[in-house]
Amino acid sequence: MNDLAPTREQRTAALEGMGCKRKRVEDIRFTQGKGNYVDDVKLPGMLHGDFVRSPHAHARVKSINSEEALKVPGVLAVITAETLKTVNLAWMPTLAGDVQMVLADGKVLFQNQEVAFVVATDRYAADDGINKVVVEYEPLPALIDPFKAMDADAPVLREDLAGKTTGAHGPRKHHNHIFEWTVGDKDLTDAAFKKADVTIKEMISYHRTHPSPLETCQCVCSFDKIKGELTIYGTFQAPHVIRTVVSLIAKLPEQKIHVIAPDIGGGFGNKVGAYPGYICAAVASIVTGKPVKWVEDRIENLTATSFARDYHMTTEIAATKDGKVTGLRVHVLADHGAFDACADPSKWPAGFFNIVTGSYDFPVAHLAVDGIYTNKAPGGVAYRCSFRVTEAAYCIERAMDILAQKLGMDPAELRLKNFIKPEQFPYHSALGWEYDSGDYHTAMRKMMESTDYAALRREQADKRAAFKRGETRDIMGLGVSFFTEIVGAGPSKNCDILGIAMFDSCEIRMHPTGAGIARVGTKSQGQGHETTWAQIIATEIGIPADNIMVEEGNTDTAPYGLGTYGSRSTPVAGAAIAMAARKIKAKAQMIAAYKLEVHEDDLEWDIDGFRVKGLPEKVMSMKDICWAAYNSVPPGMEPGLEAVSYYDPPNMTYPFGAYLCVMDIDVDTGVYKVRRFYALDDCGTRINPMIIEGQVHGGLTEAFAIAMGQEIRYDDTGNVVTGSFMDFFMPTAVETPHWETDFTVTPSPHHPIGAKGVGESPNVGGVPAFSNAVNDAFSFLGATHIQMPHDFWRNWKAAKELGAFAA
Ligand code: CDP
User: Fold this and answer.
1) What are phi and psi of 372, to 5 degrees?
2) Could you tell me where the DSSP H helices lie in 332-439?
3) Is the peptide bond before 426 cis (omega within 30 degrees of 0)?
4) Does the beta carbon of 762 sit less than 6 angstroms from any atom of ligand 1?
5) In whole angstroms, how far apart are CA 503 and each of 205, 491, 496, 525, 582?
6) Average model confidence (pLDDT) for the chain?
């Protein structure tokens, strides 16, 4: 052997494959201001569009007068619903099977709804133009409280649905009702409650909030009249779906539509749906023959594009007196706003909320969800979570704490007692899922040991005693949360969008020099796909990650994929990448066998090439095989080294985690301090530990924001009172706590590399950890459940109501 030859460790390290903390390749351009975002797209003759928006939450639109607006220098056109009707685009279908006004048609149904689109030579002129459009409104009573939506005398919001007693998801019970979705066995669940020693019941609300990507939603539409082709640059999390939707609703041939999602500055679910801005910019470009740019501002983003959550969950648990859960019953009132524009796979009107049994072995459960209309913005996106999974995790994790309190048990011990056991996997939940794998006890115990949970409880007891003696005004809370996620939408047997199965795809082309390009159907918005996808390929085919260029987001070049949201990229596209790489490897093996003059079966894989079994000197590296693929393939074999894989996953993946938040709250001011936050995540095989850590930090920061203050709040008349970053809580580095991260590894048994998604987990597990910490602190003063968000003022109010200021 040659002593200077690299060792196996050196050869493995040189690949920077899976498990390596490879630095993010995209950061070279992102940190130098060299990214290419939609607002960087500047086409010759480009025009700009801006919206006239409704100041009212509910009003009849009596007239729209554009005369003065058209006199503003630079203003070229004012598009209204009447204009859109001429091309049959005044309304558009939503992903949830409803229809939505593109521009106000007779009525407005939420504040800041799009009323008219002003097109001008620059953004300033468009803005001047919108101020000159005169709209005459007749205000109508606004319906804001979801609990009043189905009152007999509640105002009729959707006049277009008059007389429709069924919707996309079955019968409608009331003029403001959208659907009822039920899962589970009601009779068995009711029977379990009748027999129970102990029951709890609580209305647990998860308030309305909104993702805040750094870059708002935007597009540039450019119609080429000569070729009849439409090119759309946009902030799209799912570019191929946008192409198909545009083709279907604009009746343009799909091959003549080019959708390009360049760099995207964060998505978090906000950029999945289709918004009026896209339709109006496309129509304006077709009408004017010029490219048209539409860029939302922050207030428009927060108040008019897709919101998240707004679930009001009446939750009941039945249990034995020693703390074994025997039944779960949940009713959800889901506030969908003015249109049902929820971004969920087609057959799932409440997403995957039926993961609400969580990590616990509930023998029976029953769930009913009622979706309703109100005078609020439409949407219902998976803001840093898989579809409605964060609502489900919050619901069950609060409820388990409430049960622990009633039983006088420690919340961690109650969870350990009820966890699904490792030997029960694959586990069939009472609400219909097959959990692929998990080892919850190990994760929970690791969390408890790493944080010295027992010592923290002792400290809490001492502090409570000191509070009672009047020696401190601080109360201490320990927020335990254990979550099971369901990510990787999804298997074609139960997941589609508009009839298109939710597979994903990868195409790999290896070039003669041993470099290659991989094109994938997903679209990174900051998750580092260019870095991690190359790492999967590096490990699979032994080519250094640096030699693989990853491309996403251009529908002309990338294979059809369903995009990136709900942590589906690793479970679905990650699998497609591994499968495409394995096709490359299989062909490479045939080429190597031919070149080494042995049978294929006599070869074995060795880090970065094949070697002849028993003859370690007789090797052919993948790099050399790439060269051979272009000049000396076996007779009858096609030259080249390329492969495509479309991967339809057999199941979802089920990441999980154990979190602990340690918080002190000053009862006199409501000011809280997150003293410690420990997050243990299990996402199966870890592709890039550093990226995972970054994902966890980001997700926890969003969870912190949501639990501790971030909220889209309306007043009684439907005004959004938290419509800008002045009022909508966006934590900076100053407020953000320090995060401690940890992990266990339980590979997914059905995923080619054993990986599960991770991006959404910290939000799913983080929110209940914060809320449980606040509730745990106040439980000592007699609280059972305090609704989120837990900002200073609400904490102070809770303390006051619980008698903390009594003499
Ligand atoms: O769909 P999305 O990209 O938002 O979420 P994800 O599949 O959880 O992946 C987020 C990032 O974490 C990607 O860069 C993944 O490659 C990386 N990741 C990882 O390194 N290992 C895992 N087991 C899961 C994700």
Assistant:
1) -135, 160
2) 389-407, 411-418
3) yes
4) no
5) 33, 7, 9, 19, 18
6) 96
Q: Is 561 in the pocket of ligand 1 (CB under 6 A)?
A: no
Catalytic residue (choose from 20, 219, 221, 385): 385
Q: How far is it, in rounded angstroms, from Cα 321 to Cα 189?
A: 18
Active site residue 385: yes
Asked if residue 109 has pLDDT above 80, the reply is yes
Angle between helices 575-596 and 529-541 (to 10 degrees): 30
Q: 24 CB less than 6 Å from ligand 1?
A: no
pLDDT in tens, 94-104: 989 999 999 99
> Tens digits of per-residue pLDDT, 300-359?
999 999 999 999 999 999 999 999 999 999 999 999 999 999 989 988 999 999 999 999
Has 495 been annotated as catalytic? no
pLDDT surpasses 70 at 807: no
Catalytic residue check, 398 = no
Ligand 1 centroid to 765 CA: how many Å?
16
Ligand 1 pocket test, pick from 437, 695, 696, 753 with the greatest ligand atom count within 8 Å of Cβ, gives 695
384 tagged catalytic: yes
Question: Is residue 97 within 8 Å of residue 168, measured between CB atoms?
Answer: yes
What's the pLDDT band for 2 if we cut at 50, 70, 90?
low
Q: Which of 100, 218, 237, 525 is catalytic?
A: 237
Beta strands in 210-356 (DSSP E): 218-224, 229-234, 257-260, 292-295, 308-319, 325-335
pLDDT in tens, 503-551: 999 999 999 999 999 999 999 999 999 999 999 999 999 999 999 999 9
Q: Is 753 in the pocket of ligand 1 (CB under 6 A)?
A: no
User: What is the per-residue pLDDT across 676-722, written as a single tens digit (0 to 9) for each?
Assistant: 999 999 999 999 999 999 999 999 999 999 999 999 999 999 999 99
CA 558 / ligand 1 centre spacing (Å)? 19
**Most ligand 1 atoms within 8 A of CB, residue of 386, 758, 761, 763 to mutate:** 758
